[in-house]
Amino acid sequence: MKKIAQAVMVAACLTSAGAAHAQLGGLGGLLSAAKGGGGGGDISADVSTFVTQSAALSQLTGRSVIAIKLAFDNAEQRALTKAELDAIEKLTDTKERDARRAKLVESASAEAKRLYDSGEMKNKMTTLDSASKKQVGDALLNYGIGALQAVALTRTGQSLIAKASANPMTLPQILPVKDSLPLLGKVVTDSGGFMAGVIKLAQGAKIDVPTPKADSKAVDLAF
Questions:
Q1: Residues 109-128: tens digit of each pLDDT
Q2: What letters, b where the CB count within 10 A reaches 16 and e where it falls short, cover 153-185?
């Protein structure tokens, strides 16, 4: 929880107006920076790596949200969600696959927040079977790992944008980075808000929720 809270504070600094770019000297821990910061050199490789890592983070946190929602679903609801997940995985069109996955995550997030806000999640948390409790704990750990990664990637993205501003020719390359930043910010914000509340409920139900660390490994969530 402490590390997640720190992540939220860092992200707030990164996304605040004015001094954000000046506060970011390096590319953070997830990318090796291109030498000579701000020199406007080729950033295509760094952008490609950033986009790949952002997509992986989106998958990690998205599956975490779905896993939490599934833990509180009845058998029919679980079957419908799993059928949609299977259908998404079979899609060959990347844009269609990403769009349907994002829609499913958005729906799962809205339902999980409804359960939390209504008090249903609190009432049901202690009644979950051992497998569902473990699923919730693993999902919360994975989301926390994603939040820490989101902070580092936000730093990376801001630094890439600052570097691209020195060379107008590279600005089109940076568009995927700009598109990813709002999602990264949401992950961090939710980790210190909604997800922090779910962690509290889980711990109250004696569910083990390990504190995410920089070297923590994500748990495979098998639905």
A1: 999 999 999 999 999 999 99
A2: bbbbbbbbbbbbeeeeebeebbeebeebbebbb
**In this structure, are residues 221 and 191 in contact, taking their beta carbons and an 8 Å threshold?**
no
**Chain segment 42-86, per-residue pLDDT in tens:** 789 999 999 999 999 999 999 999 999 999 999 999 999 999 999
Angle at 104 between CA 11 and CA 47, to 5 degrees: 45
What's the number of domains the chain is made of? 1
- C-alpha distances in Å from residue 4, one per residue of 141, 189, 194, 199, 211: 11, 10, 12, 11, 9
Which domain covers residue 87, as residue numbers? 43-204
- Residue 3 included in any domain: no
The CA distances from residue 96 to 89, 90, 104, in Å, are 11, 11, 12
